[in-house]
Amino acid sequence: MRKFNFCAGPAALPEPVLRQAQEELLDWQGLGCSVMEVSHRSPEFTQVAETAEQDLRDLLAIPANYKVLFLQGGATGQFSAIPWNLLGGGSKSADYIHTGQWADKAIKEASRYGQVNIVASSEDRNFSYTPAADSWQESDDAAYFHYTPNETIGGVEFPYIPEVKSPLVADMSSCILSQSIPVEKFGFIYAGAQKNIGPSGIAVGIVRDDLLDRALPGIPRSLNWKIAAAGGSMDNTPPTFAWYLSGLVFKWLKAQGGVAAMAELSEKKSALLYDFLDRSDFFSSPVAKDSRSRMNVPFVLADEKLDKLFLQESEAAGLLNLKGHRSVGGMRASLYNAVPLEAVEALVAFMADFEQRNG
Amino acid sequence: MRKFNFCAGPAALPEPVLRQAQEELLDWQGLGCSVMEVSHRSPEFTQVAETAEQDLRDLLAIPANYKVLFLQGGATGQFSAIPWNLLGGGSKSADYIHTGQWADKAIKEASRYGQVNIVASSEDRNFSYTPAADSWQESDDAAYFHYTPNETIGGVEFPYIPEVKSPLVADMSSCILSQSIPVEKFGFIYAGAQKNIGPSGIAVGIVRDDLLDRALPGIPRSLNWKIAAAGGSMDNTPPTFAWYLSGLVFKWLKAQGGVAAMAELSEKKSALLYDFLDRSDFFSSPVAKDSRSRMNVPFVLADEKLDKLFLQESEAAGLLNLKGHRSVGGMRASLYNAVPLEAVEALVAFMADFEQRNG
């Protein structure tokens, strides 16, 4: 029996997607083999790859002057790829906003290849808010400006798109496809798949094509966006099953009404949980109200000695993976696209009951 | 209906593995979700990861002073990783044997980071043989010695393990787990999974631990073996489904009798096909007899105008993916572990019939 899964990633996938994959796992398209067992250059897989790209282009209204890449190595691989691809065009410095653990990893890796300017940081209050735009110390000559629109661990989300001087680079791992975005305002968007796209092992990159000529000379081939773009993300064998599953998720998203429907749904789901947290005397959100993530909702119990009981009982109630990240503790409910409203309703009902019994 | 699949990669997987994956795709271990939908740090997935490593250690008798890595980016990613990890220990030069397209890619990437010495090449006869060991021009001070035990495209395989002065590095993508190997003779073994291990999107690395301190200073984090080893190949989210499936393949291999049984079977399968090719007046092998691959068997028809008919009829007969690599033409039958003897018997019977009708 399928349960409600609030895992931060690898996260819940849409059940119809998994059912289709299950049904055709041994014999795909009547070929007599699995989609995993065909060449990535076969006509059948080429169709999968191209359709997935087109569906993603449709979903996000990606302009024609942007390349869509399907990459390996996750967002972490892109933490390296970004400076390698963008610091060879003249400027050797980059602007970064520091909003938590994922921003920090991106900053640390970029610092190995160029000068990183920390435009703003929310470290002073344990990364529980997004620094106000009028406080940012932007450079005049940055090669790019990097930020993390949604911090998966801290549960902090920027409620707006930054207006900046240099090409805007965004790690959208945990918020991509949850709302419409003006792609044309970005230089590079990237996202590990395992939250809102598909299984782990594939990442999506969306890059404005004029940025493909700024790589540092020694860039490893596997990190090179230009090579990936020129080869249709098949310079070497891509993760075909993950690409196929991502394509099924894109089709499912379109059938649900696309990112507009997902935006509405994620507003509804997160509001339901935050409203409950704000009304509760027992549970609370550690995140500033104007920066609360629609995707990842951390919360704490008034008495942390009850954490273990909460996790035991919630799991027994069919509410999975509510434990907070090992580095911060507490609880976290991730509400990605594949998590239905009913899951959040069940969670809130459980929490209300738990509070009544233990509060 | 499942057909016989001779794809060079992504290649056939063992049917029992796919059946198990299918059965538990929506509800794994009674958790109420897929193996794709749990955290890579959950106790359940940790068990998958550790068991897969131990099974691979058992299968290949990997000594304790070797680390086993599960990596992203394929063997191509390792073409970069190898010089980055090994050229920072003093010597900035490396020895490479050039035996075909895959060796060439490894050489080209390494040449960007250090001095590559081509120890030997079989380019003079279109990469149809392995250069004799007594002809090699080995360096005295190489950081490592790289070779490709089996060239997937050319169908050329070294029938022995080279004895060399520097740490031996081998791209075993298309021959790993097809026979026992003396791991202790190697410094680093690597293999993309999509031939003899699992689906595409994961690669295995086996590295002698004293080689983990020779990285070039600017090595990208995602290519760093030491970081991968220290973090249990979970510095970032690994491709969990591919890792899980690889683990199922390892279990299946053990149940079949391990690599000894696979060695016997691959001898039998390849001998059946080569014997037929050598007896035939119509089909032939372009590869020198002492260097013929047990894994990838390229062959040509006496009249290439019949290639198309051969492919049409073989596919209709349930024999899939026999077309040779786009760069060389002709045919190729890949006989990896998951390809049963019956598949080769059916192929030979078909070819005999085709020859009788068209020869």
Short descriptors:
359 residues, three-stranded antiparallel sheet, alpha/beta, homodimer, 34% helix, Aspartate Aminotransferase, domain 2, globular, Aspartate Aminotransferase, domain 1
Largest interface: A-B, 67 and 67 residues
CATH topology of the largest domain in chain A: Aspartate Aminotransferase, domain 2
The poorly predicted ranges of chain A are: none
Decide which structural class fits the backbone of chain A.
alpha/beta
Oligomer: homodimer
* Shape type of chain A: globular
**Order of neighbouring strands in the sheet with most strands of chain A:** 2-10-9-8-5-3-4
Relevant CATH superfamily of the largest domain in chain A: Type I PLP-dependent aspartate aminotransferase-like (Major domain)
Report the mean per-residue pLDDT of chain A as an integer: 97
Major sheet details of chain A: 7 strands, mixed
Roughly how much helix do the residues of chain A carry, as a percent range?
25-40%
What is the ordering of alpha helices and beta strands of chain A? Answer: EHHEHEHEEEEEEEHHHEEHEEH
CATH class of the largest domain in chain A: Alpha Beta
What is the tally of beta strands of chain A? 14
Based on the structure given, which CATH architecture of the largest domain in chain A is correct? Answer: 3-Layer(aba) Sandwich
- Total helical segments of chain A: 9
Radius of gyration of chain A: 21 Å
| Gap from first CA to last CA of chain A | 31 Å
Quote the beta fraction of chain A: 15-25%
Subunit structure (chains A, B): Homodimer.
Binding site for pyridoxal 5'-phosphate (chains A, B): 75-76, 102, 152, 171, 194, 236-237
InterPro entries (chains A, B): Aminotrans_V_dom, Pser_aminoTfrase, PyrdxlP-dep_Trfase, PyrdxlP-dep_Trfase_major, PyrdxlP-dep_Trfase_small
Protein name (chains A, B): Phosphoserine aminotransferase
